[in-house]
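Worked example 4.2. Below are the chains of a multi-component assembly; read each line carefully before continuing.
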Amino acid sequence: MKVSKLTLILLVAALVAPFVVYPVLLAKILCFALFAAAFNLLLGYVGLLSFGHAAFLGTGGYITGWLMMNAGITPELAILLGTGAAGLLGAVYGKLAVKREGIYFAMVTLALAQLIFFVYLQAPFTGGEDGMQGIPRGELFGFIDLSDNLNMYYFVLAIFLFGYWLIHRTIHSPFGQVLKAIRENEPRAVSLGYNVSDYKWVAFMISAALAGLAGSTKSLVFQLTSLTDAHWHMSGEVVLMTLVGGVGTVFGPLVGAGTIVTMQNYLSGGELGNYVHIIMGAIFVICVLAFRGGLVGEFQKLLKRNAG
Amino acid sequence: MTTFLGINLFALFGQLLVGLINGSFYALLSLGLAIIFGLLKIINFAQGAMYMLGAFFAWMALSYFGMNYWVALIVVPLVVGFLGILMERFLVRPIAHEDHLYSLLLTFGVALMLQGVFTHVYGSSGLAYAIPEALQGGTKLPFMYLPNYRAWIIVASIVVCGATWWLVEKTRLGAYLRAGTENPQLMQAFGINVPLIVTLTFGFGVALAGFAGVMAAPVYSVSPEMGSNLLIVVFAIVVIGGMGSIGGAILTGLAMGVIEGLTKYLYPEASTTVIFLVMVIVLLLKPAGLFGKEA
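Applying the procedure described above to all two chains together yields the following structure tokens:
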């Protein structure tokens, strides 16, 4: 894998960052960036808009949280199982959702996510409206204490890098090329003999599992999983992060998550806290009307214009 | 005489009535979505917010201007429809040539803003709207007590849905609309002002949601969240019915309300999820939807 200068600079910045900025906030950004990157794999590279990705974030969080509280296993195992559960749900939901296209796909995923939301609302193990609180972070591999915020941050960074690497590998594999072919011209991909639904399905599963990985990790960072994580607002938030950052770009989800999480963090402290949803809605409208490329996309366009 | 073969008829009919009322709202909202989709090929995510606006405007009209229910039932849908027209003209149209997913995101943003504004001003707890005097009280039927207002909801929504169906399927205006759905360029060539038809259709579809909102104000509590929760169910209904036909949207809406009501009687725990489960079954058996044409 060729590592560009930009990637190297970002990597060094990520290693030093927790000494400058509060590590938990950074970990939060990384979790959401991974979540957005997982979502972007579908929208940016297959052209599928999922409006139900909160289902996988929430599933990862609930399963990992429950295991940490009740099963007495190490955090990496709990995260692995949470991710697997989200992937499994993704396999079922994906199989159903890829039967429809475009706007219908968005509606199907939204409805399926609402189905699991009501299940989590009523199921006894989730704690209903209260959610799961006080999830222990445990000791990584049995000897690294994650209750230390700095340790936790570096663990999250490792997971984030793994997730990004996996997405990078997926996009640049022959499998990823077929996905892009489907995005560009689905009938042609069909006529070339590709089983388009199966390709979409596998992409959906990978995306769901990675969203679950983000949720699992997030539940350890905050020691909390609640219905907010599975709510449709969350599905909308991840769309917004990706849109703001730049759909179909590598760094878009990271930039978008960083922007939105920082904004929410800033607003929730001040008197503007009540305006969060209004502002988010406004950003949605402005992005769609004027900045469909997102921050990264528009920046790339600017670079190209100057170069040419 | 309240049980028959071990079935508590009183409870059963009660839940069926609630189901029919929910179904009336499902039908009105999915009908609005279907009309807009037919011509613009977009899904209006703000349809739920427009329904919420309808309910809030009715409440505001009564509280601030003393406008009674019957006047509100005419005026509020017009106001909401007008807002829809502004939205189509200034927000939706500029991106009409882009991927339709963008208009979905745009209308989602509008919905978030509207919901955010009303949450900020009125809080999320919900407001009460009194049932109009003429419709208070109820009728005692052999198996159940039928509140007049609830009967009115069912009758009024069926009449409005039926009239819309007739307008679209049987009149000259409806023929223009259907022709515009098939081939807008050709329509334009015949000298029909297609952009105007598109704008008016959008306004009409949104006005239906506003009308549903006014009707809902006295039975549900008027709250900022009322639209979004309903809309997601309506999306599932749209997937179940397919958006191929106006009649299909109406029938599916009513039928799903009844199924939900039945579930509330038989197995209450599943009443919030049953419509989504029906959607799953339909996706497995007939992916295009019950009345859908496209794959």
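Take a moment to check your reading of the output against the notes. Residues 13-96+127-226 of chain B form one domain. The first strand of chain B starts at residue 3 and ends at 4.
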